[in-house]
Predict the structure.
Amino acid sequence: MNGLPSVDDIRADLPAVLARFRAGRTHAFSFGAGVPEAVLLTYDEFEDLGGESKFTVAAEVLEPAQLAERLLAAVAAARTDTLDPIVWGDAGEPEAVLLSTTQYRHLRGDDNPPPGTPDDPTTRTYPTQPLPTSRPMNVDEIAALMGPEAVRDLEEIRREAGNS
């Protein structure tokens, strides 16, 4: 077991997935047949990342039971990158979205891995080392980048601190 939920796990657990999303107890996650094939995320995240402008989204909001009926076919479409995003939730309220892993990478602006490389875009990490051209900045340089008002504020703070 690789810890990745299967399609059957998700089909049986859709109401609980919504409950975890509502409570903020989970973030976007992948699932599939042993490898990440599809991603579930909140509608808020989809909307915040500009999903409505990046993808054609059906006006229909599926109920969890409807998505459960369609999930096998949806994941099959995700494998071939022919899945249209599926919005779902309770009582017609958009609460979550089903995407392929490729669509999720596109939504986030990530690059695609080389073909055949297993990749879970929901757990991807990035190098955080400074670039070779990076250098330390002092507060005066940062204030200058922010503009004249920030420079004046910094000077005022220094004057007030000097009078203490």
About this structure: The two ends are 63 Å apart (CA to CA). The first helix runs from residue 7 to 23. Residues 57 and 84 are 7 Å apart (CA to CA). DSSP finds seven helices and four strands in the chain.
